[in-house]
Write a structure and sequence with these properties.
95 residues; mainly alpha; two-stranded antiparallel ribbon; 2 strands
Length: 95
């Protein structure tokens, strides 16, 4: 599929990218090259290939999925600039 300057202009408009008129032919060639590369990728046989999230196989660390109260109120309140009676204290904004 060949990309012409009108298509490049439309894509730039949709992407909200300002492209000078004299740059449109070069942009169309770049789009054409990108689509050619995608067509090459579509020709690759991936039948039986497992999808991967990383080039190195590793297992994510997991923890037990249990409901707790957190039990970290003191640690959390240490981050607060002002804490009173076990809660975050904030300035009054409504009279």
């Amino acid at each position: 599929m060949a990309i012409d300057t009108d298509t490049a202009r439309r894509v730039a408009h949709l992407a909200r990218i300002r492209v000078e008129e004299e740059r449109l032919p070069a942009l169309a060639r770049e789009f054409d090259a990108i689509l050619g590369f995608i067509e090459q990728l579509n020709e690759v046989d991936v039948e039986g290939v497992e999808p991967m999230t990383s080039v190195t196989p590793m297992r994510l660390k997991r923890r037990q999925d249990v409901v707790t109260d957190g039990n970290q109120q003191d640690k959390v309140l240490l981050n607060a600039p002002d804490a009173r009676e076990g809660f975050f204290a904030v300035p009054k904004v409504v009279e």
